[in-house]
Structures are given as structure tokens and as C-alpha cells.
């Protein structure tokens, strides 16, 4: 199953190691900055504020302007209905 990252970018779900908020954690921002120097960062923010970092099993990372709850709902469509039931 492919996950929609941005308007024209999809990533196979099985390639995603983890996805985290970029704005809430300085250690994530630091790690992404280090990886950017090594050419391991794919920037799909379109010039907008970076909201989420998606770490891939291949060792790369995708940064995107998609907020974490929206990305989570795309990764696990059942998560929104489960949360609404509580």
C-alpha cells in the first residue's frame, strides 16, 4: 500500500521505518540537519514549514509539510475511527 506524502509523492508503506513530528523535538531536527549534509534528506515541503520527518528503512529521511495527525491517518486509516469511539 502506498502512502500519500504530498500532492504528487507516494511512498510504499513497507519502506517507512518511522514518522515523527519535526517541530516538537530538537533531537529530530538535529538528526535531519546532519543527514542533510550527507545528502540523505528528501525535501517535499514545497517551501512551507516542515512538520513531519519520515525515516525510511533505506536510511534516508523525507521531510514534509503534512502535519503528523494527517500523516498518521493516511498510514493507518482505522486510527481516526478508533479514536472517535473512545
**Rounded average pLDDT:** 86
Task: Work out the helicity level.
Answer: 25-40%
Largest sheet: 4 strands, mixed
Q: How far is it from the N-terminal to the C-terminal residue, by CA?
A: 27 Å
Number of domains in the coordinates?
A: 1
The radius of gyration over CA amounts to: 13 Å
* Number of beta strands: 6
Principal-axes shape call? globular
**Unreliable stretches covering 5 or more consecutive residues:** 82-86
Could you spell the SSE succession in H and E letters? EEEHEEEHH
Q: Strand share of the residues? A: 25-35%
What's the number of helices?
3
User: Going across the major beta sheet, what is the strand order?
Assistant: 3-5-6-4
Structural class: alpha+beta
Give the topology, please.
Layout: E1 2-6, E2 9-12, E3 16-21, H1 26-37, E4 41-44, E5 52-56, E6 61-64, H2 68-75, H3 78-85
Report on this model:
Strand 5 (52-56) and strand 6 (61-64) form a beta hairpin. The model is unreliable at 82-86 (pLDDT under 50). The chain is α+β, with helices and mostly antiparallel strands. The chain has one domain (2-76). The protein has helices at 26-37, 68-75, 78-85, and strands at residues 2-6, 9-12, 16-21, 41-44, 52-56, 61-64. The termini are far apart. It is built from 3 helices and 6 strands. The chain is globular, with a radius of gyration of 13 Å. The strands form 2 sheets. A 4-stranded mixed β-sheet has the order 3-5-6-4. The chain has a two-stranded antiparallel ribbon with strand order 1-2.
Amino acid at each position: 500500500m502506498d502512502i500519500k506524502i504530498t500532492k504528487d509523492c507516494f511512498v510504499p508503506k513497507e519502506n517507512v521505518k518511522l514518522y515523527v513530528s519535526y517541530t516538537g523535538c530538537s533531537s529530530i531536527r538535529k538528526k535531519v540537519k546532519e543527514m542533510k549534509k550527507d545528502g540523505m534528506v528528501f525535501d517535499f515541503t514545497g517551501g512551507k514549514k516542515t512538520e513531519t520527518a519520515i525515516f525510511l528503512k533505506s536510511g534516508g529521511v523525507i521531510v514534509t509539510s503534512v502535519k503528523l495527525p494527517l500523516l498518521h491517518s493516511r498510514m493507518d486509516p482505522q486510527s481516526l475511527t478508533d479514536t472517535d469511539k473512545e
